[in-house]
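Students often ask what a 'structure token' actually looks like in practice. Rather than answer in the abstract, let us consider Curli production assembly/transport component CsgG, a protein of 454 residues. Its sequence is given first.
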Amino acid sequence: MRSKTYTRIFFCAVMLCILQACSSLLGLPSNPERSTLGENTVYTTELKSMPLPKEKIVIGVYKFRDQTGQYKPAENGNNWSTAVPQGTTTILIKALEDSKWFIPIERENIANLLNERQIIRSTRQEYLKDADKNSTALPPLLYAGILLEGGVISYDSNIMTGGLGARYFGIGASTQYRQDRITIYLRAVSTLNGEILKTVYTSKTILSTSVNGSFFRYIDTERLLEAEVGLTQNEPVQLAVTEAIEKSVKALIVEGIKDKIWGKSAGDMANYQAIIDEYDREQKENINRVIGNKFPSYHRHNFAVFGNVEAQKVRDDYINPRMNIGGKLGFKYFMSPSFNLELNSSIFTMENQNILKRSYFVPEVNLEYILFPRYKFSPYIYGGGGVMFSKFKPQYKGQFGGGLEYIFAKNVGLRASSQYDLGFKDNWEGLVNGKRKDQALRFALGLNFYIGNK
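Now compare that with the structural description of the same chain:
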């Protein structure tokens, strides 16, 4: 009995050592970490490396806050924590400082500043009565020629979710992801006449991922081995907000240079041509960008030729049907980005083991519908009719099918599809038996070559 107890203790100790080793291997935190300076984003470096202005611009920010009213999602109960950090004014001021284009002045808590200056005056008047009057005067406050307004105006949860998993004999793994999105608007307002000089808009996705693995197996009738491992990573919302704000500041600077909002402070335009060209290039690319950082376009042209290799199997009145390999060649004409008319011809072989083997030449006409014509990867469905020619009487049939296409190279698409053929009569093999019409299944893999105009 004691030996079994010692064995269990030893097994538990070994498992703890293995788990600790796995924790270190996966980079999981096991010890407290020291405080560090805040992380930089991609745009922090870009802001700090921008060409300097001829003269810095005094700018004021009264309030740049979360305007979404969004709370963190909670699986159970209510969560009254906000989804967006409430210190976005401070983040914006830090971005203005990093750019070296602006002199931010305190306006968010200006009441505190004015109160402190009043305390300084009162103290000096009370305790420095005999001193020179000039020593008690405080310098005037800076005033801003431009105010920055706006805020975080949108927080969209679960704009894209998905996952993938598999399990076999008690061993399984899965992964899941979720994307949220924040949107920021920033505008520059002239204090001279209240004119809104420029408005910019940026957005940033927030990615959360989870990877899990598990093992579940009965080793014996009374012994069960179970193990799990998992890792979840959530992109910090604060860093996402910081990156979006820094992108907005950079965009505001470039737009102001282009439209000459900054006046003499910008200096010679030639000094900023490189960043203006980069900004214009990004703007041009964003014309076709949609949520998910995708750039849909019409990749398919108005004509296409294609070839398929097919696995074919008949379902007729004889037993033991066998699968054969055939081929298909065809031509497509796109009447619109989604619809095309297809003409094709194929070699179809029907065979029942030790009973019948017959080959057909089969021309077909199909109408095809592509579900997502602006994306490289898209499912499609089609249907039509055809004729099966051999040395015997022609057979008429209908067909429908569907599949997936991926445009992996310029003007070339890879296709995988399945097709169901249904005869109008029950005599493909020359035998009429029962009420069911003769049928066939086809599975194909092929290439589409697009020609002509998009």
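One point worth highlighting: The chain has six helices and 15 strands. Ask yourself how you might have guessed this from the sequence alone, and why that guess would often be unreliable.
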